[in-house]
């Protein structure tokens, strides 16, 4: 009797952007944190949220992966939104930094009213006609893990990550909030997500 193939690794959980039959419960996209390779698994197989870093053992009966074992390693969460709501001051300042430096990307540390650092904002120039960076962040084509790894060198996770595409601005905004349920994350959710996170 041939054994069922088994693989495993550490993955970032993303919402699948593929069209699937939701009557089957939908699916998660697991993005290998080392290689960036995607694997799609049935959503009911994995108790997680978008953005979680998980260790997963996969079995491949008849070539379709199923989750055999899983463990959430970091409860970081991701949210994505396209919006017309005005962006905050640090986002515009970060974009000006990129323009003044002649770069397509810039970053800036954000601070709370007490002066303490509470997040990092990145702006990435749109590339109309060639790439939709917002969708690439959503589907893992442009992984967010390098930004998270850089932040984790100085701040302990879990974080909260917001990817915001303003329909009238020439850049995509990525905000990494140091505290997953902190004041900054809550303010961003209230402003751009109608008072609630898109995540479970």
Protein described:
There is one protein chain. This protein is α+β, with helices and mostly antiparallel strands. It has 2 domains: 6-74, OB fold (Dihydrolipoamide Acetyltransferase, E2P) (Beta Barrel); 77-192, no CATH class. Helices cover 19% and strands 37% of the residues. The chain has 4 helices and 10 strands; from the N terminus they run ββββββαββααββα. It is globular and about 60 Å long. The termini are far apart. The model is unreliable at 195-200 (pLDDT under 50).
List the helices and strands and how they pair.
Elements: E1 6-15, E2 27-32, E3 38-42, E4 53-59, E5 66-74, E6 77-83, H1 89-101, E7 105-111, E8 117-125, H2 133-139, H3 145-152, E9 160-166, E10 171-177, H4 183-192
Parallel strand pairs: 6-9
Antiparallel strand pairs: 1-2, 1-4, 2-3, 4-5, 7-8, 8-10, 9-10
Give a quick precis of the structure.
This protein has 200 residues and is of the alpha+beta class.
Please work out how many helical segments DSSP would assign. Answer: 4
Q: How many angstroms does the end-to-end distance come to? A: 41 Å
What gross morphology would you assign? Answer: globular
- What is the CA-atom radius of gyration, in angstroms? 18 Å
Helix content: 10-25%
Task: Determine the mean pLDDT.
Answer: 90
Task: Please give the order of strands in the largest beta sheet.
Answer: 3-2-1-4-5
How many distinct domains?
2
Poorly predicted runs of 5 or more residues: 195-200
Content-based structural category: alpha+beta
Largest sheet composition: 5 strands, antiparallel
Number of strands: 10
Proportion in β-strands: 35-45%
What string gives the helices and strands in order? EEEEEEHEEHHEEH
């Amino acid at each position: 009797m041939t054994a069922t193939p088994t693989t495993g690794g550490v993955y970032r959980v993303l919402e699948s952007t593929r069209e699937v039959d939701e009557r089957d419960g939908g699916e998660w996209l697991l993005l290998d944190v080392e290689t960036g390779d995607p694997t799609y698994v049935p959503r009911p197989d994995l108790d997680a949220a978008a953005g979680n870093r998980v260790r997963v053992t996969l079995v491949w009966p008849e070539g379709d992966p199923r989750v055999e074992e899983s463990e959430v390693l970091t409860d970081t969460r991701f949210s994505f939104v396209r919006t017309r709501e005005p962006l905050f001051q640090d986002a515009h300042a970060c974009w000006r930094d990129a323009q003044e430096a002649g770069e397509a990307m810039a970053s800036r540390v954000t601070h709370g009213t007490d002066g303490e650092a509470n997040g990092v904002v990145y702006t990435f120039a749109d590339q109309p006609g060639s790439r939709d960076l917002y969708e690439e962040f959503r589907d893992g084509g442009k992984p967010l893990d390098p930004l998270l790894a850089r932040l984790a060198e100085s701040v302990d996770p879990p974080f909260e990550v917001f990817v915001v595409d303003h329909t009238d601005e020439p850049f995509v905004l990525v905000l990494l909030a140091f505290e997953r349920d902190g004041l900054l994350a809550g303010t961003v959710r209230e402003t751009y997500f109608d008072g609630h996170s898109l995540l479970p």
